[in-house]
From TrEMBL, chain A:
Name of protein: GPI transamidase component PIG-T-like
Organism of origin: Cyprinus carpio
GO BP field: attachment of GPI anchor to protein
One Pfam family, short name: Gpi16
Chain coiled-coil ranges: none
GO CC term, one of those recorded: GPI-anchor transamidase complex
Automatic annotation (TrEMBL), chain B:
Principal location listed in the UniProt entry: endoplasmic reticulum
UniProt keyword annotations, A-Z: Disulfide bond, Endoplasmic reticulum, Glycoprotein, GPI-anchor biosynthesis, Membrane, Transmembrane, Transmembrane helix
UniProt subcellular location: Endoplasmic reticulum membrane
Reported function: Component of the glycosylphosphatidylinositol-anchor (GPI-anchor) transamidase (GPI-T) complex that catalyzes the formation of the linkage between a proprotein and a GPI-anchor and participates in GPI anchored protein biosynthesis. Binds GPI-anchor.
Transmembrane segments: 20-41, 371-389, 409-429, 449-467, 487-516, 528-550, 587-605
Protein name, per record: GPI-anchor transamidase component GPAA1
Pathway stated in the Swiss-Prot or TrEMBL entry: Glycolipid biosynthesis; glycosylphosphatidylinositol-anchor biosynthesis
InterPro entries documented for this protein: Gaa1
Record's bilayer topology term: Multi-pass membrane protein
């Protein structure tokens, strides 16, 4: 009954933006969906889906059991209450976001899987909860999150602050882990889609076809759960579940080299309807560079401006809850056609990369290079590095140089690794001078693992997760600090505290490091050889060295022996 | 060991070895040589096989078809190269960018220690251009490299063009799991060295270069392409790298497999494979191929751009197109397909190439000799040194030398130290004295360096007379025995270590040094033995190698040409050491030559 009334409500609603801000006493939960399409400089195209489910409950405060679920997925709700989770962020990414060509993504994520969780401060056994939680999530998302254990979990002191309500600062309740080797594919997408209220049956989610999503340059899907305010006054709290999916289609492999994109070409489907459960369902197309760079059809009169990532962008808005959006064909197939060609590299204000220097299997050096491309503003960044224990960092060799001058970090938090127990954690607050390149180097030695500790393909190498650079980057335009419900989802994820700067997180590439690896193909030979050497070589040498040799007496002639026999009987001294 | 703990039997064994010492040594030497020559006989070798599963079963389908376009691109590249009088950097950057690669450049400069007369260069300044094809949905952790040198003149245009055509084709494919770096390097090996040092942020040779802007993680394998004509008759695979390092045998297997698949004639050391192993010609052919590999490996230089990658644990090989006057021709499309197939298979690798052999000799592309088979040949030679240490009247030096009445430490130490100082002079002076030499003699810098080296080498021969003066007393009988004992042990260790790293070098040195060093005493006819010793000294070994090499590549030279080649080999050896860190020159100058001088000392002991 409620569903039908909601659908009726949407279809009769003249202006959805006006409506969704009002609180409906009947409908406690809310679902919004949104797709942003951004044509990129390089000719590639970036599509970012966001689905937001609000759950109007506050079970942590009251300690009561919640058994009524409407839009919010029950599997996640139970996890939240069972493990006293305050905030949960999980992302699965296949590929590396190319900042130099694509600019900043709306929500960044490192290659592989990333999970960070704030627990409620009533939890006594955080590590136990974390262990169980990772195993449960592993089942829910069909991923290898169960490989997260104490050897790759860290507690960053400053880099990961809660994004939702509450001002938790005690990082004892934070756990952060990445699995850079995790391969993301359809088996992760299916459970992710199942969390949506409409599944992949209706709304924007019909576009999420795996054969197209994985025929791309970059694929990232994430789930963010956090407590948020319901309104501006923050009188009531709600749980927010944001599911995001970012994908970049390649000009050459997916676009056949033609700078012409359409929804059909990207997803092999067009849009025909909104999700009936959604209060808002929109498609935004970034037309800031229009009409010099490309043209968009069908044209839409609805325009929206948003300040996102320090830049004022203009978007064409297609409201899927309106029938006229779909036109006479009853389907929406956006078409973008490039006119000129870009292809030049971008110079994003903040950019970071990382590599291993040196050769040989004994030592090496990790170089992290951070670029501040702002022409005249210096700003501080927080660099976080989590390095597995088998790279033994020589922390005394840590150097930070900008413009070939020593740059002393104003804050260093270093937790050394314990072999087989916990990784290195290095957090630094570094001031980046304007228009500069800052290089952080640290030397390491490669540890010799025990032979059971090698992965099944040891010659592939071992991964070191991305380092994380978090910064408040000076903004070119005034950021919007007002909290409003009708803001597009993509611009409202990270809370904006001040007008002059915006928050950016940049992940570097993960590293693949070769460790000294024995030749596993011949353990039998090795065992045989060792045993033989020990048995034959050592044994007889020891024998030769410790034994005292005496020359044998030549045996006596028969006559003397007989004489001796008689002498022994007589008891007189023997002949020699 | 029971044998040794029994004093009687021990005595018997010792007696046998002492009595038959010389015959045993001769037998060992001959057996070593015969064993080595037998390695090329086909029934004694193993057939090559693909060890890496990731490259074996999954056959790929090659679809590259723009060979014609590559050839027209080669003309365009040639025109731009002429216009720019060197590397057409801007054109290359544009060409790579328009093919959808991330393009970066690296400039480098290097002042050679003395002018290189073979390649006519002294102050080298250049730019490398490389484009990275980013694999879709890959986290920039692994990469493959395809490189083509931009050579002066008309050479290698087709290689650069084919590289660009491959880049264009590869860019449109979705199946890449590793980034692919397309590198066009200037000044052949110097450019490659600058790029590799930049990529790994090391500086081992004093190169000046600008830091690299774009990277793609750890490089798994590299292929270098050299192609100078539109059609080719055969492809040659070059494996020998710096300091005699070889890439994993699977890389050679991969090349061979694709040559078979696409019906391309393939050679190694420029020699085709023959099937008639049971005839004398067949055996000689295989032996010549193997000898060429041994000579090339022994000289420790990089025989192509690939050779410098090996130091960084990157498996690499050069593929060289050869156009001779045979009827059988292969076009650029087929070569492109061959490379496509190889790169796709390398792309399928889960781990670095490690399954197959790293130490091997190839008598043909389909047959190999593994380390287990060739090491006994060296072992038989090395054991002679040990036999001589223990028996010919030297064994009681162990006990004697420990007594205070034995010849003083000084007697032995003086020749050792003086020999090594000569070695140091041989290593340092030629390059440092070149200016002085050029001032006083009418020679060029290169000639000055080489001639200084030869002069110091020859001056070292006068040492025994000088050392005698330094010694306090007469050289005693015990004295030379202790010196010979030391020298034999020293040589055994030196050759053993060398052979482990670079078998060919170790073996060649052992063949020439072992007979004379094993038999030398001061009581021999001095003049005759002095001539023999000089003829078997390291420098003459190099000279013989030059002649044998020329003979084997079917370009025999006259004595004077051979001498000129010998001089240029020496200067190249010194240059290779300075530019790329080749270790053959310091090994010869600092260790082998002083060791040989110690034996020279024994001959003139009195």
């Amino acid at each position: 009954f409620r569903l039908s009334s909601l659908i009726g409500h949407i279809s009769t609603c003249p202006s959805l933006i006006g409506q969704c801000c009002q609180r409906h006493p009947g409908s406690v939960d809310e679902f919004q969906e949104e797709l942003v399409i951004r044509p990129l400089h390089s000719g590639d195209i970036y599509a970012s889906f966001q689905f937001r489910t609000l759950w109007d409950t506050d079970f942590l405060q009251e300690g009561q059991k919640v058994s009524h679920y409407r839009l919010f997925p029950k599997s996640l709700g139970q996890v939240l209450s069972k493990f006293s989770v305050r905030e949960l962020h999980i992302s699965f990414t296949q590929g590396f976001w190319r900042t130099m060509q694509w600019g900043q993504p709306f929500i960044p994520s490192p290659p592989g899987a990333e999970l960070w969780v704030w627990f409620h401060d009533t939890v006594s056994d955080v590590d136990g909860n974390w262990k169980e939680l990772t195993n449960v999530l592993s089942g829910i998302f069909c991923a290898s999150l169960n490989f997260i254990d104490l050897t790759n979990t860290v507690q960053p002191s400053a880099s990961f602050k809660p994004l939702g309500l509450g001002n938790a600062t005690d990082h004892r309740f934070l756990r952060y882990a990445t699995l850079p080797r995790e391969i993301v594919c359809t088996e992760n997408l299916t459970p992710w889609k199942k969390l949506l209220p409409c599944g992949s049956k209706a709304g924007l989610a019909v576009l999420l076809k795996s054969e197209k999503l994985f025929h791309s340059s970059f694929h990232s899907q994430a789930v963010h759960i956090r407590p948020v305010c319901q309104d501006e006054q923050c009188t009531s709290k709600a749980w927010e579940l944001r599911q995001t999916l970012n994908v970049v289609f390649d000009l050459y492999t997916a676009g056949q080299g033609k700078k012409e994109w359409s929804l059909f070409k990207m997803f092999s489907r067009t849009l025909t309807e909104a999700c009936p459960l959604a209060t808002s369902s929109k498609v935004y197309v970034d037309i800031t560079d229009n009409p010099e760079l490309f043209e968009l059809s069908p044209a839409t009169p609805l325009l929206s401006q948003a300040v996102v990532l320090g830049d004022r962008r203009t978007y064409s808005v297609f409201d899927l809850t309106r029938a006229e959006t779909f036109g006479q064909l009853r389907s929406l197939n956006l078409l973008l056609r490039w006119k000129g060609d870009g292809g030049e590299m971008l110079r994003p204000l903040l950019h970071a990369e990382r590599y291993v220097a040196g050769f040989g299997l004994q030592t090496g050096e990790i170089h992290t290079v951070i670029y501040n491309n702002h022409p005249y503003r210096a700003f501080p960044v927080l660099l976080m590095d989590s390095v597995p224990w088998y790279l033994q960092l020589y922390i005394h060799t840590l150097t930070v140089t900008s413009k070939s001058r020593d740059n002393k970090p104003s804050y260093i938090h270093y937790q050394p690794a314990k072999d087989r127990h916990r990784p290195h954690l290095l957090e630094m607050l570094i001031q980046l001078p304007p228009h500069s390149m800052t290089e952080v180097t640290v030397q390491f030695e490669r540890a010799l693992l025990k032979w059971t500790e090698y992965t099944p393909d040891p010659n592939h190498g071992f991964y070191v997760g991305s380092s994380v650079v978090s910064a408040l980057v000076p903004s070119m335009v005034a950021m919007n600090t007002n909290f409003t419900q009708d803001q597009p989802l993509f611009s409202s994820f990270v809370p904006v505290k001040e007008e002059s700067s915006y928050f950016v997180r940049v992940y570097t590439e993960p590293l693949l490091v070769n460790l000294p690896t024995p030749d596993f193909s011949m353990p039998y030979n090795v065992i045989c050889l060792t045993c033989t050497v020990v048995a034959v070589g050592y044994g007889s040498f020891y024998n030769l060295l410790t034994r005292t040799f005496q020359v044998d007496e030549p045996s006596l002639p028969l006559a003397k022996r007989l004489a001796n026999l008689i002498r022994r009987i007589r008891g007189v001294p023997l002949l020699t | 060991m029971g044998l040794l703990s029994d004093p009687n039997r021990r005595k018997a064994l010792t007696g046998l070895l002492t009595r038959l010492n010389t015959p045993i040594c001769i037998v060992c030497y001959l057996a070593g040589i015969v064993w080595f020559m037998g390695l090329a006989f086909e029934p004694f070798t193993l057939r090559t096989y693909m060890s890496e599963n990731a490259m074996g079963s999954t056959m790929v389908e090659e679809r590259f078809s723009s060979g014609e376009r590559a050839l027209s691109l080669a003309k365009e590249f040639d025109a731009h190269k002429r216009q720019a009088r060197g590397m057409p950097v801007e054109w290359l950057v544009k060409a790579m960018q328009s093919r959808g690669l991330e393009v970066f450049t690296q400039s480098f400069s290097r002042k050679l220690p003395f002018p290189d007369e073979n390649k006519e260069r002294y102050m080298v300044r250049g730019t490398n251009v490389y484009g990275i094809l980013r694999a879709p949905r890959a986290p920039r952790t692994e990469a493959l490299v395809i490189t083509a040198p931009c050579s002066p003149g008309n050479t290698n245009n087709q290689a650069v063009a084919l590289l660009l055509a491959l880049a264009q084709y590869f860019r449109n494919q979705i199946y890449w799991a590793k980034d692919i770096i397309f590198l066009v390097n200037e000044h052949d090996l110097i450019g490659t060295q600058a790029w590799l040092e930049g990529y790994h942020h090391t500086n081992i040779t004093g190169m000046e270069y600008s830091p690299l802007q774009g990277r793609a993680g750890s490089i798994q394998a590299a292929l270098s392409l050299e192609l100078s004509s539109d059609v080719i008759t055969s492809l040659d695979l070059v494996l020998e790298g710096l300091n005699g390092q070889l890439p994993n045998l699977d890389l050679a297997n991969l090349f061979y497999a694709f040559c078979q698949k696409l019906g391309v004639l393939c050679t190694i050391q420029g020699k085709l494979q023959r099937n008639d192993w049971d005839t004398a010609e067949g055996y000689t052919h295989a032996a010549q191929t193997m000898m060429l590999m041994v000579l090339k490996q022994a000289c420790g230089r990089s025989w192509g751009d690939h050779g410098l990658f090996l130091r960084y644990h990157i498996e690499a090989a050069s593929v060289r197109g050869i156009n001779s006057f045979r009827h059988y021709k292969t076009d650029a499309t087929t070569i492109g397909r061959l490379l496509e197939g190889m790169v796709r298979k390398l792309n399928n690798l889960l781990e670095r190439l490690h399954q197959s052999y790293f130490f091997y000799l190839l008598p043909s592309l389909s047959r190999f000799v593994s380390i287990g088979y060739y090491m006994p040949a060296f072992g038989l030679l090395a054991v002679i040194l040990l036999l001589r240490v223990s028996f010919p009247g030297l064994c009681h030096c162990f006990s004697v030398s420990l007594q205070p009445s034995s010849p003083g430490v000084l007697t032995v130490l003086t020749p050792v130290v003086i020999s090594h100082l000569t070695g140091v002079a041989l290593y340092l002076l030629p390059v440092h004295l070149q200016e002085m030499a050029v001032e006083h003699f009418p020679v060029s810098e290169t000639e000055a360096v080489v001639l200084t080296a030869i002069a110091i080498y020859t001056a070292g021969l006068a040492l025994p007379h000088n050392t005698q003066r330094l010694l306090s007393g007469e050289g005693t009988e015990q004295g030379w025995k202790v010196l010979k004992l030391t020298a034999l042990l020293y040589l055994a260790v030196l050759l053993g270590c060398t052979a482990l790293i670079n078998f060919s070098l170790g073996f060649i040195l052992a063949v020439t040094l072992v007979p004379i060093t094993a038999s030398i005493t001061p009581h021999m006819p001095k003049a005759l033995y002095a001539v023999v010793m000089v003829l078997l000294s390291p420098a003459f070994t190099i000279l013989y190698c030059v002649f044998i090499y020329q003979e084997l590549i079917e370009a025999p030279v006259s004595v004077s040409e051979g001498w000129m080649l010998f001089l240029s080999v020496i200067s190249q050896g010194i240059l290779d050491h300075a530019l790329y860190g080749s270790l053959v020159y310091p090994l010869l100058a600092l260790f082998i030559y002083p060791c040989w001088l110690m034996f020279w000392n024994i001959l003139f002991w009195n």
